[in-house]
Amino acid sequence: MMGRLEIKDLHFSYTENEEILKGIDLVLDQQSTAIIGQNGAGKTTFVKLLKGLLQPTSGKIVYNGTDLSSMTVAQIAKHIGMVFQNPNDQIFKNSVIDEVMFGPMQVGMSKEEAKVHAMDALEMVGMEKKCKVNPYDLGLSERKLISIAAILAMDPEVIIFDEPTIAQDYAGKKCIGEIVEHLRNQGKLVLTIIHDMDFVAEHFDRAVVFAKGGVLLDGDPKQVFSRAEILEKAFLEQPNVTRLCHALGYEETFLTTDDFVEYKKGQ
């Protein structure tokens, strides 16, 4: 089943005096979506609400027709998986395979089924040869890939990545980008909160800009990243290629070097 989230007039406050989210209305389905905005814009609070880790002050989140408030955190976990920014917040087993099998077994898979799912997920992140290793003997970027595999193995319909490219080199980013596209092609809803605009430009279908607890811009990355003056208000920069091409005097918005090369070939 495909994941669909409807966010209706969502408000949230940690304290009475300060509202963090101020009436968010969004429908999230099919398109891989990046939620961007400076620190304090409400992005992390928003995804914690989607995971059921926080409850809205008012408004509601509906997942495939069911109000999330009627589901337990464990029930939500079967459908909505989240890869934390810091893998050390997620990893606690002594071997990679045990770590990646843990989630699937918690959502009701048998040990055999969990192992198959775990090995498939490890293969997807290129870590299948390290299945017997202790995760803490691996570097930070590899632990991040293990934490991604642990969520993929649970096979949720919605996968949220919190800052997936932090601590990743070029190969790691490429691998995570391919995973995002593979999941989208499988019909899963992929969401991320992220500060890496180049990664958004290359791998996401939709960008939603949060600012001061509301939605400032929402559209495909080309539309969103062409609005330089609005992005500036949200303290966001355009992707590197976009900025470079504008600095060189091109009016058009190019998101990637491939975009620019195609344009030049067509001239």
Structure description:
- This protein has 267 residues and is of the alpha/beta class.
- The protein has one domain (4-222): Rossmann fold (3-Layer(aba) Sandwich), CATH 3.40.50.
- It is 39% helix and 23% strand.
- It is built from eleven helices and ten strands.
- It has helices at 43-50, 73-79, 96-106, 111-124, 140-152, 170-185, 197-203, 221-225, 228-233, 240-247, 257-266, and strands at residues 4-15, 18-29, 33-36, 58-63, 66-67, 80-83, 158-162, 189-193, 206-211, 214-219.
- The chain has a six-stranded mixed β-sheet with strand order 6-7-8-3-9-10, sandwiched between helices. Strands 2-1-4-5 form a four-stranded antiparallel β-sheet, with helices on one face.
- The radius of gyration is 19 Å and the shape is globular.
- The model has no long low-confidence stretch (mean pLDDT 94).
Concise account of the structure shown:
The protein is α/β, with parallel strands linked by helices and 267 residues long. Helix content is 39%, strand content 23%. It has a single domain, classed as Rossmann fold.
Number of structurally distinct domains: 1
The DSSP helix count reads 11
The helical percent reads 25-40%
- Rg measurement, Å: 19 Å
**What is the CATH H-level superfamily?**
P-loop containing nucleotide triphosphate hydrolases
In terms of structural class, how would the helical and strand content be classed?
A: alpha/beta
End-to-end gap: 44 Å
Largest sheet: 6 strands, mixed
Oligomeric description of these chains: single chain
Beta strands, count: 10
| Beta-strand percentage range | 15-25%
Report low-confidence residues grouped into runs of 5 or more.
none
Give helix and strand order, one letter per element, not per position.
EEEHEEHEHHHEHEHEEHHHH
Provide the residue-averaged pLDDT: 94
Overall shape = globular
Q: Name the strands of the widest sheet in spatial order.
A: 6-7-8-3-9-10
CATH topology: Rossmann fold
